[in-house]
Amino acid sequence: GKSSGSKMAVTLHRRLALCVLALAVAELAAGVQVTISNVVPRRDTAGNILDAHDGKVVYQNGTYYWYAASYGMCKEPGGDTGCAGAAFGACGFRADHNVSLFTSTDLATWTNHGPVFQTALSGIPQAVLFCPKALYNRATRTYVLWFNWISGSDFANSFYAVATAKTPFGPFVLATQKVTTLAHQDTGDFNLLQDDDGSAYIIYTADISAPSQSHRMSIERLTPDYLATMGASAASGFFGNSFVEAPAMFKRQGIYYAVFGSCCCYCKEGSNPIVYTAASPLGPYTMRNALEASADACAPRASRASVLAARACSGSISSQQTDIFGYYAEQGEGFMWMGDQWQSAPDGIKAHDNTYWQPLAFDAGGNVTQITFTPQFTLDMP
Fold first, then answer.
1. Minimal CA–CA distance to 222: which of 250, 194, 249?
2. Segment (H or E) for 55
3. Are residues 215 and 193 in contact, defined by beta-carbon separation less than 8 angstroms?
């Protein structure tokens, strides 16, 4: 009678509760699907457009740390290049550039943590900062930030500096004002790679000023503390074409990829990167293909005039590469291409220039599949 009916009701309630719990667990296990737009500006959780350029994304313990240069609310020059009228104090060449940190767990929702390194407080006089790249050194338990800087008093003087912090949120403190261990001097754009064994490498352009002004690319191994390089004793030597910059490196299934494109000084049309691969981080590297499907003919050439001419056909995504970083989706590890779309802000404010993102795909031989403009894409994040 009554007793058995009560027991039956309790059993039904328990089963219903278990079903609800199972559905909740299944939903949690399924993760979340996010949409990433290349048309709508990226904003932080406060609704502000991200002033994030020239940077690098580092993944650690479920969080993506995006260290990027913040160029501020200055007005860009009109036309196809932000380098028109370049001089100390002009937009993009000021001494108040900061390294800002943005974090996310799903690559779509970003929290702005503000500046983690401020050039004006660094102790380097009249320094114009570009291209901040950071790594976490597991051996020393230190976050290491490299950046390129030029002297406001003489644009021909270009250097790398290193700052460190004990937490990813900084503040980063200057450790080395001028790295002097490089095999090549007169340096420009660069990037960093951390290998599986904890060793790290810098890929960088050198000879960027007269008289040679060749803009050649090379790779060197960093010292174990990541504060300097091992110089010519652990270097690739120059490889690839001349007049190149904005490099990135990554490793996938035992293959090392070095990707860089023709020189593009804050240029609106962007630069079509060329993909090189090797069996070891220091090479030798073999050229594979242009990243953009629009034209292999846009590959960098050996003279300045031909590089300038090639820009006219260099790709539909109109971006200059800034980084290629690993991300983790439901389908496993992927690699995200990221580029700056200079001169793209509708209001002409440099801080509002957009960044273009696209997941890379690979064929059976490990070659990167060429990309075309993608307005938006979705990711199934864990």
1. 194
2. strand 53-60
3. no
d(CA 258, CA 195) in angstroms, rounded, equals 13
Q: Which helix (H) or strand (E) holds 19?
A: helix 2-30
How does pLDDT run across 56-107, given as a tens digit for each residue?
A: 999 999 999 999 999 999 999 999 999 998 999 999 999 999 999 999 999 9
CA–CA separation, 218 and 223 (whole Å): 16
Closest CA to 129 of 96, 81, 82, 177: 96
User: What's the predicted TM-score (pTM) here?
Assistant: 0.88
Residue 3, pLDDT score: 54
Contacts 24+ apart (CB under 8 A), 74-80: 74/349, 74/350, 74/351, 75/348, 75/349, 75/350, 76/266, 76/343, 76/345, 76/348, 76/349, 76/350, 76/353, 78/348, 79/268, 79/343, 80/267, 80/268, 80/269, 80/343
160's tokens = 């790398």
90 burial (CB, 10 Å; 0-12 / 13-18 / 19+) is: middle
Copy the structure tokens of residue 180. Answer: 């002097």
Check whether 16 has a pLDDT greater than 90: no
pLDDT digits (tens, 9 = 90+) for 119-149: 999 999 999 999 999 999 999 999 999 999 9
| DSSP annotation string for 113-156 | EEEEEEGGGSS-TTEEEEEEEEEEETTTTEEEEEEEEEETTEEE
362 beta partners: 368
pLDDT in tens, 277-323: 999 999 999 999 999 986 444 444 343 333 333 333 444 799 999 99
Reduce the DSSP state of residue 333 to 3 states and report it: strand
Distances (CA, A) of 45 to 71, 103, 113, 170, 221: 20, 10, 11, 20, 38
